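Review form for a predicted model. The reviewer records the input and the model, then writes brief findings.
Reviewer: anonymous (R2)
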Amino acid sequence: MKFRDRQHAGRELAERLAGEGAGADAIILGIPRGGVILADIVATRLGADFDIIIPRKLGAPDNDELAIGAVMQDGTSYLNKYLINALRISEQYLEEEKSHQISEIARRSAAYRKQDLPYSIAGRKAILVDDGIATGATVIASARWVRKQNPSQLTIAVPVAPTQSVEVLEEEADSVIAEYKSREFSAVGQFYEQFEPVTDEQVQSIMRTRGLL
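Model under review:
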């Protein structure tokens, strides 16, 4: 299964969520950058509120593309203990990498969202949206942070994910919706015909249109 682009994936995901009973009482939370495109479409189609949350991947020493975990701005985190032990990563490195990524979250937050704008998640159905899941690290950290905001229900919704990642995510949310699950998975982009990088300007445009920046 392939999606033409993120817009196509967003429309398909919105239809699936509507079929699962999601509606205007939900708040749709997009993960920058790519997930913001889909979350905007989902929120519009459901008539639901929209916002973003910003996790950052924790990269391995000498290979920052390899996710050994992820972190949120308040320090909420997920750590892949298996990888950390296998690579013999020190506690000092982990703390330094967390600090570095929290600084980057602060930079992106200032660029994407009004400062001190409160979140409206407590007591509501929260739907966490990304354009796909690989390791699941950033989505897990995001889900743990959303849980701290006391939603009435938490759903993770993505167009595509590895089957094994979905099984892990099911322990972090009330439900996980993946339009397509695959055991043959190398990268999210393989399931899209067009998967160009999303720019800061695209995210900012959506946020300004919604009055959040």
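Findings: The chain has seven helices and eight strands.
Further findings: The radius of gyration is 16 Å.
Recommendation: see findings above.
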